[in-house]
TrEMBL record:
Keyword Metal-binding tagged: yes
Protein name: Chaperone protein DnaJ
Keyword flag Kinase: no
Residue runs in coiled coils: none
PROSITE patterns the record matches: DNAJ_1, DNAJ_2, ZF_CR
A GO CC term assigned to this protein in UniProt: cytoplasm
Keywords: Chaperone, Metal-binding, Repeat, Zinc, Zinc-finger
One family name in Pfam for this protein: DnaJ
Chain positions covered by the region annotation Disordered: 105-124
CR-type zinc finger segments: 141-223
Matching SMART domains: DnaJ
GO biological process: protein refolding; response to heat
Length: 366
């Protein structure tokens, strides 16, 4: 799954179950192979179905929100992980309960309505921050701080956008509803729409004066340091979600979320492939031939004694079970440490060393 799952369903990040279900129904209605004859409709519908199978499951959704696709462990929304929707359900969601065989216009006077959003509280935007971790922090987790600039609720008006002490009355145009109705006549009947009241911009209120500090938006921009808990086992490219640390919503709306994209610094000793970690050590030609024990560093910072068998060849990898990195958010499940043996060949020899090496060569030649 390359695309963001919320984007696939056409809903904002962090949407609740009801919004996710509505987004799925609307997308399914458009791309279901039974109603869409485009060549790629089936593939698009499959992607929609797989996205819904993750976001409709509270546990999978929580892991996806926190870690992105990495949190699904490869099984959240892959092939076979989708859901099916009945074609009649699609028409039901489109026609408001009429079903396939019912009248799309219902029984309410030969028309149907379409609502527009009003100028009430609005959801705040999500924000992105980048964070580079030390190698071992990525492996074992820890606490980090990220400095961001985001919108917070205005300290003067407390987020409602109204100047303190200003008089607030009911809007005369919409009589407090925040919407106005308009009827358009068509050959199929009257088409009724409602839109935000142009006088009060959907608030239903007539305000004497809006807050001068935030210009009526209810938010102001501030810098802040956010503490972030890093779970064990994260890797470069993972994403962490910090709920409610995005921009505050205009006019008292809920704040968006902060998404932190991780990178990991290179370590001078270790490299990593998932939960497995690799390092190297150097032994002499004599030790490689005769065998030896060598102390090698591990992620746990305690040197581990490694037995090098006699006759070890250059490039041999020795496995230290359970000395790798922890799995994502599972500290008890660790990978392995693979130590590559490099054989050091001397570049200069003393007279005695040369004599012994020549004797060894002669013996091996017999």
């Amino acid at each position: 799954m390359g695309r963001d799952l919320y984007e696939v369903l056409g809903v904002p990040r962090g949407s609740d179950a009801r919004t996710i279900k509505r987004g799925f129904r609307e997308a399914a209605r458009k791309y279901h192979p039974d109603v869409n004859s485009e060549p790629d409709a089936a593939d698009v519908y499959k992607e929609i179905s797989q996205a819904y199978s993750v976001l409709s499951d509270p546990d999978k959704k929580a892991r996806y929100d926190q870690f992105g696709e990495a949190g699904l462990g490869g099984g959240g929304g892959g092939p076979g992980g989708g859901v099916e929707v009945n074609l009649e359900d699609i028409f039901d969601s489109f026609f408001g309960g009429g079903g396939v065989g019912g009248s799309p216009f219902g029984g309410g006077g030969g028309g149907f309505g379409r609502a527009q959003r009003t100028r009430g509280p609005a959801q705040g935007d999500d924000l992105r921050a980048d964070l580079e971790l030390d190698f071992k922090t990525a492996c074992f987790g820890g606490q980090e701080k990220v400095r961001i600039t985001h919108l917070e609720s205005c300290g003067k008006c407390k987020g409602d956008g109204i100047e303190p002490g200003a008089k607030v009355t009911t809007c005369d145009t919409c009589r407090g509803s925040g919407v106005v109705m308009q009827v358009t006549r068509t050959p199929l009947g009257n088409f009724q729409t409602q839109s935000a009241c142009p006088t009060c911009q959907g608030t239903g209120q007539s305000v004497e004066a809006y807050c001068a500090k935030c210009n009526g938006q209810g938010v102001e921009r501030k810098a802040k340091q956010v503490s972030v808990t890093i779970p064990c086992g994260v890797d470069a490219g993972n994403r962490l979600r910090v709920a409610g640390e995005g921009d505050a919503g205009p006019r008292g709306g809920a704040a968006g979320d902060l998404y932190i994209f991780l990178d990991v610094k290179k370590d001078p000793i270790f490299t990593r492939d998932g939960v497995d970690v690799a390092s190297s050590m150097e032994v002499s030609a004599a030790d490689a031939a005769l065998g030896c024990s060598v102390a090698t560093p591990t992620l746990d910072e305690d040197a581990c004694e490694v037995k090098v068998p006699a006759g070890t060849q250059p490039g041999t990898k020795l496995r230290l079970k359970g000395k790798g990195a922890p799995a994502l958010s599972k500290p008890a499940q660790r990978g392995d440490l693979y130590v590559t043996v490099n054989v050091k060949v001397p570049t200069s020899l003393s007279d005695e060393e040369r004599r012994l090496m020549e004797q060894l060569r002669d013996l091996q030649a017999k």
